[in-house]
Structure formats: C-alpha cells, structure tokens
Design brief:
Length: about 400
C-alpha cells in the first residue's frame, strides 16, 4: 500500500514501486483542512494540505505568526513533517491524518537577502562553514553553487537568506562576523514573512499570496537529489577541487543549509531525526536536466553519483548520514524478505543513525509486526534472531 499526501517524494515512493509488486495507492488529497487556533498559537493541519496552503492560512490570521518548514509551497504536509524532524518516516507505522503544530512568532517585518557572487568563492565557502551555524539564531543563511556555461564553465554562488528582523542592524552584523561576503545594503529587501515565503519560492516580487494556494508545482522537470552532512571544516583548497569537479560534470548543483540554532539544542535521541549537534551543514546534491529519454537520465544520474563519491572525504562517516526527506534509493533498498532487518540497516543507519534505527525497529516490531506499512526504505520489524546484527554493528 502506498500513501500519498503531496506526492513530492523525490523517488516517487508514494505512487511507484521499485520491487515489481502490485500495490494500491491511498491518496488522501481531500484531507487538507487547516484550522488555526490563535488563542493557543497552534494549528490543526490535515496531511494533504500543502506547505503553501498552511503558510497562507497562518498569514490570513496573523502577520506575526509563522511556521518554519520547506521552501517549495506545493510539498505536502504528510510526507514533509514525518520526514523532517517530527516523526520517523510516517509511512513505516501507519497513515497520519493530521498534525497539531505550534506556531512561532515572527516580527511584522523580516529581511531577505539576495546575494550572488562569482569571485573568491572557495575562500567565502570555507569561511561560511566556519560561521553559518553560529551566526545568529534569527538568521538563516544558505549557500548554493551552480555551474554556469557562458562559453566557459564557471561557478556561481548564491546566498539566499532570511533574517527575522528589519535590516537596520544587518549590515553591521555582517561586517563584524562575515565581512568576506562583502554585503551591501542594496542587497537586503524588507517584507512581511508571508511575502518572504513567496520570494524564497522564486515567485516574482508582488505576486499575490493566493499563489500559495495553487497545488500545482510551478514547473515539472526531471531531477535527482542526494544528501550529505558536513561535520568538519572543508579547506579552501578542497573547495577549489570540489568546484573543478562540478565544472567537469556540468549541471551539478551543491546547496548547503546551515544547522546549529535550535536544531543543535535538541538531543539526537529525543526524536527519530538524529542530525543534531555536531553538524555544521546539510548538503543537497541537485542535478536537473531538460533532455528527454533514458540516455540523458543515465548520464545525469551518473554525474550526481560521481559527485557524491568525490565528496566522500569531506562529509560525515560511519555512517555517512543522509536526510530522509531527500529520498535517495542509491543508499539502499529493502526487499522485506528474511534479511529485512539487515537490509534496513544499510539506509536506516544513514537516515536515523545506529541508535535511533534500532529503537525504531523496536517500535515497529510492537505496532506493526506483520510489516503491513512498508516501502522500499521503511523501517522493518526486527526479531530476537536479529539481535546479533546490532551487536556486530556496534563492534564495527
Ligand atoms: C520540488 C520539491 C521541493 C522540496 N523542497 C523541500 C524543502 O524546501 N525542504 C525539505 O525539507 N524538503 C523539501 N522537499 C522534500 C519533501 O519534504 C519530501 O519529499 C516530502 O516527503 C514530501 O511530502 P509529500 O507529502 O509531498 O510527498 P508524498 O510523495 O505524498 O510522500 C512522501 C513519503 O511520505 C509518505 N507519506 C505521505 N503522506 C503520508 C501520511 N499521511 N502518512 C504516512 N506516510 C505518508 C509517502 O508514502 C512517501 O513515502 C522538496 C521536494 C520537492 C519535490
């Protein structure tokens, strides 16, 4: 059985199967009501509501409340929340019909920053890794690299950012703690939080907020996503090598999201999502292509796999961690046969780390011992016969 909310699984696991087994789809697209309860600053949101619909309904009630979640407004709440830090990949345990969420307070004016750079990128990137997770809790400063082809392949960097406050202090703060970026006041734009949601989603300034209610993505393109975590500093020289590799592979993008802040304050054992303190940034590998056909697909998939292999020395190890919401079947698939527990370890340790994976299999064994709720990367139930696997892994 496949459960679909927003249908944005990067490998399409809510509507396709890679195991050649027949399946039915439980598509809960009609369950998308949102009730905002301002008296308690909470909301009930049904799983098939999109993030855009949620953001719109919150802003409709208040311009000083928000909810921090993904950038793309057509992503569904059902898969997004259960993979992003609040659950353990809902699909392993049942069908989630709705969530109660706690709204956060935001100022009436926030600042977005639109920074593009083409020079000194290896130095800036190296410095970004030193500061981005520690700067200020009110600042979310991302870093993205793409290959641009103007006759010659070069790297372009963007630093899309959101600051929960007006721009008055921002220039001074940047000058003090991250002068390498060379920020100018003209690169800041003040707006309301809901306008920043549109801005981050690449809608032109002035787009009415009702655009967030459109459940159809702005564009449909083939892509492949992979993920990594950075825990140690990458030197300027190594960033130069990384950029050379990107140019060689074309179309490859690397997006760095800072961690730190509240992400680090929560214990890695208190929720299934384990990527907490000690992680400087999450890396997203993006490859997008326009050509149709299997040949192009194989070519671009290969590019991103080569890039991922190339990054091995610079990212987390034992396990090499990954982000569940950037679904990637390259890191392991479960056939749910007699070796399900061992097969689950391959991707489970990357998504949840060892301890949380083990605890999730224990929950699974209690609530769904027959493994009814499953997909190619769900949590399998483990039996007492599998105990030796966990011992062997802790020795390794
Ligand atoms: C264009 C695009 C932009 C994205 N942007 C971001 C971003 O900014 N930040 C980020 O963190 N992620 C982002 N993602 C990834 C996204 O968070 C995940 O793919 C998420 O799982 C999608 O949820 P969904 O409900 O839309 O997908 P679906 O395909 O419906 O579901 C994803 C998985 O969750 C399961 N599932 C869905 N609903 C339920 C339910 N109600 N109960 C139990 N299991 C369920 C499905 O079976 C499937 O395994 C993006 C993805 C895309 C395609």
């Amino acid at each position: 059985m496949k459960t679909r909310s927003g249908g944005h699984d990067f490998e399409g696991l809510s509507y396709t199967s890679y195991t050649n087994q027949p399946f039915v789809i439980v598509d809960i697209f009609n369950l998308r009501s949102i009730h905002i309860g301002m008296e308690h600053e909470t909301a009930w949101v049904q799983s098939s509501a999109t993030l855009g619909e949620l953001y719109y309904r919150i802003a409709d009630k208040s311009n000083t409340h928000a909810f921090p979640a993904g950038i793309c407004p057509t992503v569904g709440v059902g898969g997004h929340f259960s993979g992003g830090g609040y659950g353990g990949g809902g699909v392993s345990f049942g069908v989630v019909l709705s969530y109660k969420i706690k709204l956060v307070r935001v100022p009436p004016v926030v600042t977005v920053v639109n920074i593009k750079r083409v020079k000194n990128l290896s130095y800036i990137a190296h410095r970004w890794l030193q500061v981005a997770d520690k700067l200020y809790d009110k600042l979310f400063l991302r870093m993205m690299f793409r290959v641009v082809n103007n006759g010659e392949r070069t790297i372009q960097a963007e630093f899309p950012s959101l600051y929960l406050g007006n721009s008055t202090n921002l220039v001074t703060l940047f000058k003090k703690d991250f002068p390498e970026l060379g920020l100018e006041k003209s690169e800041f734009i003040e707006m309301s939080w809901i306008e920043s949601v549109l801005y981050d989603g690449s809608f032109p300034i002035g787009t009415p907020t009702t655009a967030l209610l459109n459940r159809k993505p702005q564009y449909l393109i083939p892509l492949k996503i992979k993920s990594d975590y950075v825990k140690t500093l990458i030197s300027q020289q190594n960033f130069e090598l990384i950029f050379e590799k990107m140019k060689e592979l074309e179309n490859q993008q690397l997006h760095f999201n800072p961690y730190g802040g509240q992400m680090s304050e929560i214990s890695e054992f208190s929720k299934p999502f384990p990527h907490r303190s000690g992680n400087t940034a999450k890396v997203q590998y993006v490859v997008i292509w326009e050509e149709l056909g299997v040949e192009a697909e194989i070519r671009y998939l290969n590019f991103t796999r080569v890039m991922y292999d190339y990054m091995t020395p610079f990212v987390s190890k034992n396990p090499r961690e990954a982000f569940l919401n950037y679904r990637d079947l390259d890191i392991g698939v479960n056939s749910h046969g007699k070796n399900a527990c061992a097969e689950g370890m391959v991707y489970g340790h990357k998504y949840f780390r060892k301890s949380n994976y083990k605890r999730l299999t224990m929950v699974k064994s209690r609530v769904d011992p027959e493994n009814f709720f499953r997909n190619e990367q769900s949590i399998p139930p483990c039996s007492s016969n599998d105990e030796s696997l966990f011992v062997a892994h802790s020795v390794i």
